[in-house]
Write a structure and sequence with these properties.
Largest sheet: 4 strands, antiparallel
Shape: globular
Mean pLDDT: 85
CATH topology of the largest domain: Beta-lactamase Inhibitory Protein, Chain:B, domain 1
Radius of gyration: 18 Å
Number of helices: 4
CATH class of the largest domain: Alpha Beta
Helix content: 25-40%
CATH architecture of the largest domain: 2-Layer Sandwich
Number of strands: 8
Number of domains: 2
Oligomer: single chain
Structural class: alpha+beta
Order of helices and strands: HHEEEEHHEEEE
């Protein structure tokens, strides 16, 4: 029984690695096919599919959230202007956006800035919840950005560290 479980676990892990590799290879191609100010919302959806969430933007724009968590290391926010054209395509998991996350911010504002997290864990005894996002720190280091929230869904603090699930950190 234990051997069978190990084989199944290895197969699942292998499939996850392959899916992550394929997904990572697809995003640059999808992005290169889209030009800001030219591509339509239909073009975006044809390449990225249905968004995880749609946010209201400034002046009637809409922001389509495309999540690559938990296996990926990117989240995209794609802005569609009121005329239906893509006006911005941004990968939001980066140090500049992490610096925008400040104590007191509401949980929804953090989600709107960074997209859906890879993982959310509640620590009942501390009355805190932690959200993790996996990202790639240049040149090629897998990291995790964590935001800690209080019971009122406000940011308490943030932290950054090596991704313990990344291959380069295994066994360290």
């Amino acid at each position: 029984m234990a051997l069978r479980f190990s084989v199944l676990a290895l197969r699942a892990a292998g499939a996850a690695v392959i899916a992550t590799w394929l997904l990572a290879g697809c995003d640059p191609q999808r992005i290169s096919e889209l030009e800001e100010g030219v591509a339509s919302e239909a073009d975006v959806r044809a390449r990225f599919g249905e968004p995880e969430k749609i946010w209201d933007g400034a002046a009637g724009a809409r922001i389509l959230e495309y999540n690559r968590q938990p296996a990926g290391q990117k989240n995209y926010m794609i802005t569609i202007d009121p005329g239906g054209r893509m006006s911005a395509l941004r990968q939001v998991l980066n140090p500049a956006n992490f610096e925008r996350i400040q104590p007191g911010m509401m949980m929804e504002e953090v989600r709107r800035t960074l997209g859906k997290p890879a993982k959310a864990v509640t620590y009942s005894l501390k009355n805190e919840t932690a959200w993790d996002w996996r990202y790639l720190q240049l040149p090629n280091t897998s990291m995790v950005f964590t935001v800690w929230f209080d019971s009122q869904y406000r940011v308490l603090r943030t932290s950054t560290g090596p991704d313990p699930d990344a291959m380069e950190h295994m066994g360290k």
